Structures
1.
Amino acid sequence: MSFLFGFAEPSSVPTSSTVAHSANWFLEYAWLVPLLPALSFVGILFFGKRMRYRGAELGIAAVSLSFLLAVCAGFAWIQHRDNFVLPDAASGAPATPGESYVAVQNSTQWLQSGGVEFGAGVLVDGLSVMMLLVVTIVSLLVHVYSTDYVGDDKRYTHFFAFLSLFTAAMLFFVLSDNILQMIVGWELVGVCSFVLIGHWWEEKPNSDAALKAFLTNRVGDVGLIIGTITLFFAAGGGHTFDTIKINEAIVQGEVGHTALVVASLCLMAAVMSKSGQFILHTWLPDAMAGPTPVSALIHAATMVVAGVFMIARLYPVFFEGMQIGGSSINLMATIGAVTLVFGGLLAFVQDDIKKVLAYSTVSQLGYMVMALGVGAWTAAVFHLFTHAFFKANLFLGSGSVAHAVHSFDMKKDMGGMRKFMPKTYITFIIGSLALAGLFPLAGFWSKDEILVGTGGWGLFGGTGGNGAYTFHLLMGVFGAALTAAYMTRCVYLTFHGEFRGGHAHGGHAHGGHAHGGHEHGGHAHGGHAHGDPHESGPRILVPLYILSGLAVVAGFANLPAGFQLVGDSWTERFGHYVEPYKSSYFPAIDHATPSWSLAVVASVVALAGAGAAIYYYFVKVDRLADQTQQSLTELPDGLSKSNALAGAGHRVLVNKYYLDHLYEGVIVAFTKGPLARAAYWVNQKVIDRTVDKAGETAVLVGRHVYDVVDQSVIDGFVDGSGRVSDATGEELRQINSGKVQNYAAILFAMAAVLAGTFLIIFAL
């Protein structure tokens, strides 16, 4: 182990107290982790169709090696974090091991322009190592799952090629050591998502969804570019993209507050689009048009968490720009709080199981952004970590059910699936409980840390934090109840009640498609129809088992301080290794102390939400179904039908707060309609008329110049000169007769005139 995880001597450390350029092999060569899937992308494109398994084996092998390297990097980082000793800057004496947080940065000059050097390199610290582990393990399981799920797809090789590139792009992004390099990874992730969401581009809804995702993200990217430019000129003495230098300059107070406000607001716009924050979240549910493995990868470990990662990486920008410390409200925390509640409410009115999970992701991303907004950095990143496992589990579980019934409609084509798919059912229940934040699953620990981190709870112990964000605490607790309630509804409609998909369609899904696209290649696998649901095969179930196991144990990675069942050395391990605590490029944030009373209250509220849904569906709906001998999914005379206010609220949710209508029916329609017609009128009546008049005037002027100047003046002068020359020539021709005596006479005459001239001159 000492050979593999050996450490550099303190003398190899540069002047910065935060960065080391030398470390163990796995940290120095972490760039191999994204390189391998990038190479597999090229290999699959060129050779995949000639390989035995059509390129899937190359993608799986590359991601497997990346995962092993990421695991080794994780162990290496643990030892590096605990054992790396830096000399004290003042005295030169060695610091205490584990007290100095030393990131590993290796960079080289990429290009030089205008005297400014632009580098390219990798930054390896606890945050990036954690992301390497999450992305590679989820991507590996998605690759394995996909070999069965899209096995009949006609673009199978193409799918695996871009799945590898998608993984490589996200890994490249999280290892970037400067903002310019992060933008490259950011945009590459967006391009890959565009390709994969529109994988079945023959269906217009799929291509529309891909375009919507791409264009919505471009709106936020305007803010990303402006924010990056602002930081480039404002931080690190100006003219630098290096994240370490930018963060250090902000922490040391070298950047003006106005510049930080501008940069944080602009970057927040990019986060809103990429990470699905209200009101730029509308693309994310539509992205369900892509294959289910893509949905799992996007929502669990790649694209949508890119915005959260960027905030965590550039946290001083936001912490100082939005004045998070010592406050009770700021824009980031409020956007996150609104997103988590409004996204959760939308999940209640979805019939498509994948869209329920999509709005759930919107809500959980709201939790992460809210946590970062209240200063609970570790809680936000820890929730990103745990959420990746149970959300990937739920998405792949939904695909397992859809694989059996060839539809994603819970109300029309599911119900009673627990009898046909008991293994999928168990894994889905585990993921749902973890998502609801119930003890002792992973979501409980990370969500509780977020609520504690708001600093808005001071009852029976548990105080501190970076402010008193009481409003955000209430929104977080309410969001926990919503999560438990809509997941109970989802479980009931999918797995309980009577099976509602007993009508066969000749081995095809509705119209040969599921979810508006060629899900499962548009055909029923093995000739199964709706009346013959079946459990999925091992290549689908094994990833579900692994993710379910991680959803159970991942929360124990960061047990709260003072947890009585384990020693202190086993608590807060995640925060110890991931948070850059006491680092020169990280702000001095305060950590809230755990509150068991808040954990109990939040759990009771979540159970109340689940209990309300259980009473509605498992008691009232089931009782009415038994009485009427009908298969019901809701009460026919429910509150939304009997109460006008509830009905209005239901319509607002069904229409998704009318945001799509605002964007497509108002803004896009206005742009394509009146604005386009006005622009056309201006073009035809103003610009073209001006150009035409200028042309007509030029013709008239040209004709006048031709008739008057050219013909009358210039041609007249030339013709007159010709006539004079001709007359002169005629006269000279008479003299130039060719007779010598005439020439002699002229010569003597001229000589006489010349002699007379000289005589007159001399006489004078």
Note: The chain has three domains: 1-321, 323-519+531-558+587-634, 739-764.
2.
Amino acid sequence: MLNFKENEDLNKLNHSCAHMMAQAIKHLYPEAKFWVGPVIETGFYYDVDLGETVITDEDIEAITKEMKKIAKDGKRIVRNEISKSDALEKFKEDPYKLDLISRMDEDSTVISIYTQGDFMDLCRGPHVESVKECKYFKLIKFSGAYWKGDVNNKVLQRIYGVCFRTEEELNAYLQELEEAKLRDHRKLGKDLGLFMTNDLVGKGLPMYLPNGYIIWEELENYIKGKERKLGYKHVLTPPLGNVELYKTSGHWEHYQENMFPKMEVDGEEFVLRPMNCPHHMMIYANDIHSYRDLPLRVGEIARDCRYEASGALKGIERVRSFCQNDAHLFVTPEQIGSEFKRVVHLILEVYKELNITNYHFELSLRDPEDTKKYHPDDEMWNSAENKLREVLDEIGIPYIEKIGEAAFYGPKLDVQVRPAVGNEYTVSTCQLDFCLPAKFDLTYVDKDGEKKTPVVIHRAVFGSIDRFIAYYIEETKGVLPTWLSPVQVAVLPVNNVYHLEYAKTIFDLLNEENIRVEMDEREEKVGYRMRDSILKKIPYTLVIGNKEVESDLVTYRKYGTEEQITVSKSDFVQFIKEEIKEKRF
């Protein structure tokens, strides 16, 4: 979908439409006061203090009607620059604007205001020439929002909208939003019985239902099987650790605001872990290592906990407890290139098998001018960055270089997916780390008998399995490949009196072959049960009637088709087992 912030014209247009909305609100609610109205990736919003008034659908209709009147009137949008003292005077009745102005530097900040007819607002701009350009808009939704995002502050009314140059563009975007609603993993998760949440358990703490856990388990077994073939050793570590562990790693100093509060037990302080690398460092430190032992590839499907603001939580995409498909590769400097290459090939293989096509690679590098953020070792950085470039160029993968986006401890490669819903984000990642092994005093003995510090490669192919499932069911609209589907075959006897016994033999046969099968013997018409099977997005539905019983055959219909195919039981079993084994999409 479009990113309004990155599109210069849409950015300006939506910024202006936000002001037009504020003007309309001021006409309808003269006492209204405004906080900020930025352009965001999905359009714009404005935070408004309406006193005791709570926005309703009827209010949105009234605001929309008033906005159309303002657009038709077509007042020019005029920019003026004023001093800080003048700004304080002009907005002296508005505590929200006064808060903004008071924090501006009097000497270095240019304070600008934009006026359109009877409305004036503090703003950096830029804006379009007149409100006439903002006539193709739609107010999308509304919600409450704490002032400055602080739960201790007042709740303001936040109204979201979008604006386009043409009616056709607006309608096309609104159609995309409708499509996004149908793909939303929260809706699909509920419809397909995949996961649930409950505030009594806790916000951001999803629970996987049987169908959802089957998907989870299949993905876990899939990626662990691939890792084992590549020489990974899997471990299991606890989801909490002593605070001293995170002080040693540096997370307590640099990442504490994203962690849950510490707990004191028997005189020790513990914390829920936000990531797994410190535990894996300790596993490495448990033994003495020679250069002959390396690379050592330690993998884990590991439970992590991070504090996320309640407003940022979203289904299983953004949560407070999640599992990472994590691994740490302990390598010599000479092995960086070959191991990095193996990781990239693994990512490409997984994406191909799962039919993930809309993605690109980003190589995050340090900013040499930033001497505070990055580990101070020019030789290390230059060598590592060049090594990663060489591997990507050798494989022939196009990539974008992002200066200043590296982690403080080393360069990294991110795979950005462009999902069917929302904006792009990172799924897979591969990061070099020269710092953490030193912090934990990790060593290996090289061929000359000297102790050296290994390099660590952090990598995650699925990233968070929770987030990957959310991404994947949105991409597929919940129509998963057969190997990943919670129920692979539904068996429907047309009439329980005449067909149920034979249907049960089919059920038992499939069950014996480890095919996930469901029997629907409800006393409902077969058409009704067939529609239910389609709603559940079950890959194959077998309808068992007189013909099947008399000829000892099965008739199946594949999801998404109308064709009914009759085959022998053994042929169907062989066919579906091959499809599952080959992970056909």
Note: DSSP finds 18 helices and 28 strands in the chain.
3.
Amino acid sequence: MLQLLLLGCIFFPLLAAAAAGLDKDGRSRRVIVFTGVGVTALSALGLALYGGFTLPVTTGGGLSELMTVLDFALLLVILYIASRMRHKLCAMLAVAQLLGMAYLDFALLDGPAPAMFKADALSLVMVLVISFVGGIVCMYALGYMKEHEDHLRLTVSRQPRFFFIVLLFLGAMNGLVLCDSLPWIFFFWEVTTLCSFLLISHDGTREARANALRALWMNMLGGLAFVAAMLFTQKALGTLSVERIIEVMGDPAAHTAATLLPLAFLAFAGFTKAAQLPFQSWLCGAMVAPTPVSALLHSSTMVKAGVYLVLRISPALAGTMLAGVIALMGAFTFVATSALACGQSNGKKVLAYSTIANLGLIIACAGIGTPAAVAAGVLLIIFHAVSKGLLFLCVGAVEQQIGSRDIEDMRGLYRVMPRTAIIMMIGMMTMMLPPFGALLAKWMAMEAAAAAPAFMPVLVTLIAFGSALTVLFWARWAGLVLGGDPLAAEKPAAEQMPASMTCALRALLWGAILLSLLVPFIFAGIDDAIRILYGTNGAFSVSGGVFRNSMGAFAVYPLFALLALGVWLSLRQARRAAVRKPDLPYFSGIQQTEEGKLGFNGPLNVFVENRSSNYYLEAWFGEEKLTGKLNTIALVLLVVMLGGLL
């Protein structure tokens, strides 16, 4: 049974990908995609119900040898792409990885490295996030991509290629989180790198190709660090098993420069994949891709691989200065990219910087490395994936409707797309307000930082300030969505959207709400796994839906009851309110309307339309103002992290 579930999570998406790629006329696409994501999701659920497991790969089966061959084949494909596109840096990084893997396989190892499939609470959480959230994004793409290609006026559909890559992506991500052997993880790691390049460049524009190449070389740089980590790990510890590395490094006496250096390289690889400063530009550039690609990269796949890797090795780093620097880098990225998000009016860029910020907070939790911090990091992975996936899909639907992703153009969206506007607003609430899981996880992270011995005052300050900035940009956006034009019609317009897109939005909306309601039970499962790993609980007790520790409490169910009461009272009062014509703004008596637009009579009797917009504090939070300085600080921290061990 276990083998079948593994096949369903890793290999069945590959079969579905091949079928989608061969279905050129699209007649069976819907059946293939629904079957592919359905079997993958059910298999992931089966693994979660099965619980933790360890399944060694038999050395006589030839699977390890096949993975070695696939490693080299994949790197050769990337080298071919880099050469064809005449990108010297990508080609050099691919050659360096090939040489490193050749030295590892033929000089350091006596035969293939022992491998096994292994799952604990972290792996199973990742599999569920990848399979369910990623699967819902695939369903959404069925309706979205048709409209997207109609907008591009394509004569030949690229959807077979698109769904081939997306389904391949899901299988590769599940393989990455379920493998224990570093060479096997590296293979799936680079598959996700290649898939992200192909998806970002999907539309074929010059901007798309340029941004895809940036994503490729930055992630290839992380791949090279991954290869270096395997070389140093094999020499220093004589193993490429993540489980064995954590076991050996659990002894503080093993914390030497030689043993910590490969872990620093793995953390570096995680930073590039998670688009942490100074590598954030590749993820912001990925916004040129179709919205389902953005949702996949930002919520359930790709970037989550980076934080997964750093969280996975965090027990091996506990108590080291390296862990403290990683925590500091994550917290710095959290506050820096939250500030950058405040200076954006492009909806996708706000979501991009918010994603990078939340990933930074997860990495800060991994660096802190205490049971409470790791539990907070895992919860952040869950709630961020669902809520951020929902918001990306909402922005994609809005962009197709109004032709813009600028949040200023979404002013009064409720009048145009009432259902989507309400779903989007609730999605923003789940990211910033109690009692939803994202805020609970941030509270837990702040509590863990307050108890951390390394950089404690700095970490708490950075996390607190970053959290305050997130409220600023979410509240501003939500207010725009619910605002309205005083001249607009009273009744919202009828909203039309493909069924697959509507179902995807509703599934993620209810997922964000229900998961927050179930958070005490989710935490209980995570806490049990952490107790096994660390020998102690996560420092939080849960009773009656209230999380408690020595510093305070977070009342989930009482706050939900208060929220429900507030919503009921608000709706009751709204129904009782009398309908009246809104008062128009006063422009010194010269206001007038023209063609349904509000304005005033300007110079030379020329009508001037009234326009209002938010202040984006570009002097403080603008990209041009901050990016260079922030990247410099991040580079210094990277040098400290690696240079202190060399």
Note: The CA atoms of residues 140 and 315 lie 37 Å apart.
